[in-house]
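Batch manifest, entry 17 of 40.
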Amino acid sequence: MIRLLVEFLLPLVAPTLAYALWLAWRQRGGSGQSAPGDAEGTEGAAPPPTDWRSAPWIWLGATGIALVAVVAIGLGMSRSLGGIGGTYVAPRVIDGRIVPGHVDPPPSR
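Output type: structure tokens
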């Protein structure tokens, strides 16, 4: 359960959590003061969002999905079964008993 949360849910909500922290910091006045030269060239720029209604939900969601994809691909590549060796035998029923799946060792040379 914790693995599922860390591998998939955390990357999905991480951009929104980061945005929430930035928004809270901004509302507390973290960067409310601008330097004297900052006002140049920003006449047409939109003001930064100040509440959740104006949050960039599409970008937050897309970034979260992209992070989940990166984590899933990275974990899939790092957890390969190439080092096991042998042949996988699927679970089956023999004489009314369920024999669990296992890996038979490779034949000796």
